[in-house]
Amino acid sequence: MTRSAIRPLLSLGCLLATFAAAAANVTGHADDGTLFGFSTSAATAQQDLERRFDAQLDPAELRGWLRQMASQPNQVGSPHDKANAEFMLAKFREWGWNAHIETFSVLYPTPKKVALELLGPKPYVAALHEPAIEGDATSGLGGALPPYNVYGADGDVSAALVYANYGMPDDYKELARRGIDVRGKIVLTRYGHGWRGLKPKLAQEHGAVGCLIYSDPHDDGYAMGDVYPQGGWRPAQGVQRGSVADMQVYPGDPLTPGIGSTPGARRLTLKDASTILKIPVLPISYADATPLLQALGGPVAPAGWRGALPLTYHVGPSTANVHLTVQSDWKQQPIYDVIATIAGSAEPDQWIVRGNHRDGWVFGAWDPLSGSIALMAEAKAIGGLLKQGWRPQRTLVYASWDGEEPGLLGSTEWVETHAAELQRKAVLYLNSDTNGRGFLGAGGSHSLQHLVNQVAAGVTDPETGVSVRERLRAHMRVAGSHQDAKPEAKAIAKLAAAGGDLPLAALGSGSDYSAFLEHLGIASLDLGFGGEDDDGGIYHSRYDSFDHYARFGDPSFDYGVALAKVAGHVVLRSADANLLPLRFGDFSDTLDRYVGELHKLIDDTRETTEQQHQLLDSHAFALDADPTRPLAPPARDSDMPAIDLAPLDRAAQQLAQSARACQAAYAKRAAAGFDLTAAQRRQLDHLAGSMEQRLTDPAGLPGRSWFKHFVYAPGMLTGYEVKTVPGVREAIEARRWDEANRYAVDTARVLDRYRAQLDRLTALLQNG
């Protein structure tokens, strides 16, 4: 599900605020070069183990697995989806893992009829079809579902069309300023600048009766490069499928929020499932969008709304109606999670969980099978280590998720089913999704930041010969050195030039870590490479094929091996470390920056509110002078009261003191070779491994109790993109002042619980 644009370091956007704030105060923690979490003797053995692991990774095997798994349509409910599950099950068992398939029954509507036509004097019937492409062996195969958006409503509507740019909140404000109302209309939006599910949701909230989403060549077509098959970008009839479920409320099966979709589970009725939209939605190509855009009248679109099609973009409405039909088969489908385990020899009740989803929208070579084959390479190499006599100290759980594309179904249902056991045992979840050629992307819980940096420093980039960490550092410095670089990019470059650890991106949503991190509070990572591949143009289309990936993704499959090395080393170190390699001072430093951002957000919001008042006063004067003025005055925000962040400031300051004490106690123990009994180590690991859970609260976030993490969550109006300290941040952004003050107190209380457990961990390190 994760798109290429959010791959190079998991979204540059997620890192901008983090880097910008950090660049002003680069302190960090010194790296003394020792292997974090290991004694000197254990580190030597670990590095030898990782060399033996690496020696078993073969890019030719990854290529063969991808060719086989992407050879037929691979969407939920397809025969090949089940065949791939059985293939992976057999492979895990062949490699020495204890493996089984867990099956869940989920609501998965599939289209019975989709149709779109422009009525009036220049009628047009949309093709809604992706033709075969010469040189792509699978593009003409049958068995694929037509382009559609899952979890939109059924409907048969005819109405005038209005163009709403990317269909985000500011776009509707722009329409309102022009006096254009979308009530009773069909809204046409383009993909990009926000998660697809928000586009029909906002159209619905503004009174539209239907929504169309098209891919403009400005964003992922010929304006970006040659289109497929000459290049990697989206051809004229390419369509981006995808889910439009309201996953910011909860992911997973819409009928079983919070519980696994197992036999006998209590299910909501369809009308009570709040994540299913109420209007029909359909994705279309830019070839099908062109006649619709040409039919629009009204004002010429603002400059920022104009794409790359050879026409004048108008806002509308159209004089001729558009007729949209979506009819679906609303039935249950089985999904198949493949779960493979190797029991820990010393600590079987401490789990390292590693996952990647397997289902695609059609063939899914890049999304997600490019990540799945890296996971398979890791599993085979670990099996080879088993045959050499090694066993992990902690238990390994490898998972191939099904049903991710419709709404994180497989991972969410598994997590909800096993929630109590996971909260007792899981100490890390490591995710990947898509993978390509280029730069390392890494996001996750900041207590894992130092571990990821040490691992990345020890893996060689296939193209440059330097470590993947240093290649990323150089990329950041170059990007920020241009004269026209944005201030955020310059701040990133300054931080990268300072040396030391590179920060992790904060995680929002869009892949299978959500249930682990944001529902249960299990420390999580998301890894992958990208930035130099040309896969974004075929995202969620029929052309996400083996042939495309082998030309424009990772032709040598060396970056599949690089991902297997980075992820595999994280797994192996977490499994065998003397103490779990979690460093809580990195989280504390990051939290300080987040709190600083909240202060700046308050200042900026207050300044913006004052400017709005001045604008309204001047606008009112202009209206008195010229009552025919065409633009409606903007709505006036109420005066902004004081927002009290003192509880958060205090909690962050106290946590910083506790984190320094913990780091000092850890350093003493490490210098002494971790002279602890097995019982003491078990107790320390239990506290360290459950620290992330202390950042959750059973009540959850306002309006979406499924999301229980008080530091990381997807934004209600950003989709995949993260909102940090979301209870406070989103309340300020929405001008819900009382809620902001309330959640400042509630979040501080959560942080105090986290600090209290950290203090217990420190006392154990000090006193043993």
What topology does this entry show?
Blueprint: H1 12-23, H2 40-54, H3 59-69, H4 79-94, E1 98-107, E2 110-118, E3 124-125, E4 149-150, E5 155-159, E6 161-163, H5 169-177, E7 186-190, H6 198-205, E8 210-214, H7 217-220, E9 242-243, E10 281-284, H8 286-294, E11 322-329, E12 332-342, E13 347-357, H9 365-387, E14 394-401, H10 404-407, H11 409-417, H12 419-425, E15 426-432, E16 438-444, H13 449-457, H14 468-479, H15 487-497, H16 514-520, E17 524-531, H17 546-552, H18 558-576, H19 584-625, H20 646-671, H21 678-689, E18 712-714, E19 722-724, H22 726-733, H23 737-767
Helix pairs in contact: 1-15, 1-19, 2-9, 2-18, 3-9, 9-18, 11-16, 14-15, 19-20, 19-22, 20-23, 21-23, 22-23
